[in-house]
């Protein structure tokens, strides 16, 4: 009698323990303790799953595929911060409305650059090399093996409300944000911010890059 | 023809091996400097460690380079940028597409390896000039193995079997190693983005390029260069379009990308 009581208590404890372990494992995946590399890898794997999915193959599924990928991408990047730092000093001179417009345009521009690349995905391997974490900031070193060549990609992330968000990436040492800043500067110097907005809008109206 | 090529290649290899030994033996300060480099690379390389003190201190400052390059030749550079752009769309891309239809990707990769192997002597010399004796001798071994076992460089036997990796060094980087800045930006017709220092570097590296060493005629040199260019374009079809079509001032974007890319190579990131 007593023995079975003890047994059921032990059973209860074990049960409670397993349940709590499970909640930590699942519910904790978005918690503050998560490593930036793991979080990045989960998101990249999700994108790769979409690209490899047999149901989503073919040119007629292109829009659907893009939308699914962009949904994940929107959760990975801090586009507002990226837009801000790509403008440099000019950002501070903008009204809140101008800032919002610019963030929208900038996001679409970056998406276009990368969705084109993603479209040519052909089972390239992604390798995760290492991560450096300092407080709320981190860098994750990765590489893509493409056509027998290793192309290094480094992500710079910052923690925002417990989630790591990418605010820049370097492909073969070329920073996306620095590159866009120099590009935008060259327009702003001649045509001011209005000229820049007009130019981006025009660029986005063009049909997508071929190939 | 083929035999003399192998003979000459053999001469270069033996020459390089002897020079690298002389350097390794004599210049103690150089080899000391060389050892710190691989050490750092190792520390930064593997195992996902998070406590690399040097990098943690510096990565935030290192991320963004503030320096832009002078561009006194801008009007001329822009002219040649447009020239190269048209050349790409009207000639290079259509040719590369046909080429890609005829030759499988594996063959294109082999051809790229072949050309890459021809640059091994220049890499070996430049590693040496930068005091990186170990990397230099690795390049020599790579060249010797890939030119023979790797079938005239078509395969990368040294990397695939012996895990010997190429160190991407050139004379432009050697000049930078000794403090030379890019000076000003140059966009060459046909050759594309460069700067004053790297143009000198290109010229210097040509002296140890097997095709030049073999004293092949200019037709052969231009033919070889064209094939390399077409092959490279076939392997990267779409990349140029995507980059320039999502830039607002493609000239400025390419100029900056070149700057950042070279800076990365110089600092061996």
Structural overview:
The complex is a heterodimer of chains A (211) and B (269). By secondary structure, chain A is an alpha+beta fold. Chain A has a single domain (3-206), classed as Nuclear Transport Factor 2, Chain: A, CATH 3.10.450.710. Helices cover 57% and strands 20% of the residues of chain A. A five-stranded antiparallel β-sheet of chain A has the order 1-2-3-4-5. In chain A, helix 4 crosses helix 5 (96-119) and helix 5 packs across helix 6. The model of chain A is unreliable at 22-32 (pLDDT under 50). Chain B is an all-alpha fold. Chain B has a two-stranded antiparallel ribbon with strand order 1-2. In chain B, helix 4 (74-102) packs across helix 12, helix 5 packs across helix 12 and helix 9 (171-177) packs across helix 10 (196-206). Chain B starts with a helix and ends with a helix. The interface between A and B is large, with 43 and 44 residues.
In brief:
Chain A has 211 residues and is α+β, with helices and mostly antiparallel strands.
Helix-strand layout with pairing:
The complex is a heterodimer of chains A (211) and B (269).
Chain A: H1 2-27, H2 36-52, H3 62-76, H4 79-87, H5 96-119, E1 125-134, E2 137-146, E3 149-160, E4 163-171, E5 174-175, H6 176-205
Antiparallel strand pairs in A: 1-2, 2-3, 3-4, 4-5
Helix pairs in contact in A: 2-3, 4-5, 4-6, 5-6
Chain B: H1 2-26, H2 28-45, H3 53-63, H4 74-102, H5 105-118, H6 120-129, H7 133-148, H8 157-160, H9 171-177, E1 185-188, E2 192-195, H10 196-206, H11 210-213, H12 218-235, H13 239-245, H14 250-266
Antiparallel strand pairs in B: 1-2
List key phrases describing it:
heterodimer; A: 211 residues; alpha+beta; Nuclear Transport Factor 2, Chain: A; 5-stranded antiparallel β-sheet; 6 helices; 5 strands; globular; B: 269 residues; mainly alpha; two-stranded antiparallel sheet; 2 strands; disordered N terminus
């Amino acid at each position: 009698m007593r023995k079975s009581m003890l047994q059921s208590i032990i059973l209860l404890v074990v049960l409670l323990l397993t349940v709590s372990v499970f909640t930590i494992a699942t519910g904790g995946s978005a918690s503050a303790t998560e490593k930036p590399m793991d979080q990045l890898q989960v998101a990249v794997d999700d994108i790769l799953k979409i690209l490899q999915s047999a149901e989503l193959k073919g040119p007629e599924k292109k829009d659907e595929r893009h939308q699914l990928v962009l949904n994940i991408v929107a959760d990975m990047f801090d586009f507002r911060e990226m837009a801000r730092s790509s403008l440099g000093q000019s950002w501070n001179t903008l009204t809140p409305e101008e800032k919002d417009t610019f963030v929208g345009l900038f996001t679409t521009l970056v998406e276009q650059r990368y969705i084109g690349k993603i479209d040519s995905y052909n089972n390239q391997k992604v390798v995760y090399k290492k991560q450096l974490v300092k407080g709320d900031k981190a860098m994750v070193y990765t590489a893509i093996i493409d056509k027998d060549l290793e192309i290094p990609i480094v992500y710079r992330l910052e923690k925002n409300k417990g989630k790591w968000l990418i605010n820049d990436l370097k492909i073969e040492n070329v920073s996306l944000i620095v590159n866009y800043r120099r590009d935008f500067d060259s327009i702003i110097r001649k045509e001011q911010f209005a000229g820049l907005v007009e130019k981006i809008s025009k660029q986005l109206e063009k049909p997508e890059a071929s190939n | 023809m083929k035999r003399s090529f192998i003979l000459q290649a053999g001469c270069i290899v033996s020459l390089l091996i002897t020079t690298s030994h002389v350097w390794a033996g004599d210049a103690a300060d150089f080899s000391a400097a060389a050892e710190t480099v691989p050490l750092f690379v190792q520390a930064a390389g593997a195992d996902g460690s998070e406590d690399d003190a040097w990098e943690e201190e510096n990565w935030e400052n290192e991320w963004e380079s503030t320096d832009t390059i002078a561009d006194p030749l801008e009007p001329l550079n822009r002219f040649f940028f447009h020239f190269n752009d048209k050349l790409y769309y009207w000639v290079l891309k259509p040719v590369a597409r046909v080429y890609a239809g005829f030759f499988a990707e594996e063959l294109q990769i082999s051809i790229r390896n072949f050309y890459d192997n021809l640059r091994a002597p220049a890499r070996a010399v430049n590693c040496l000039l930068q005091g990186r004796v170990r990397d230099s001798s690795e390049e020599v071994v790579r060249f010797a193995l890939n030119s023979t076992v790797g079938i005239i460089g078509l395969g990368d036997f040294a990397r695939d079997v012996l895990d010997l990796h190429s160190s991407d060094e050139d004379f432009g980087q050697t000049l930078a190693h000794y403090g030379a800045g890019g000076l000003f930006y140059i966009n060459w017709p046909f050759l594309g983005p460069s700067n004053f220092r790297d143009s000198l570097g290109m010229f210097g590296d040509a002296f140890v390029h097997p095709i030049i060493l073999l004293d092949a005629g200019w037709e052969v040199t231009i033919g070889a260069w064209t094939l390399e260019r077409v092959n490279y374009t076939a392997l990267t079809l779409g990349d140029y379009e995507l980059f320039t079509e999502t830039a607002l001032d493609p000239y400025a974007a390419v100029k900056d990308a070149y700057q950042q890319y070279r800076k990365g190579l110089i600092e061996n990131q």
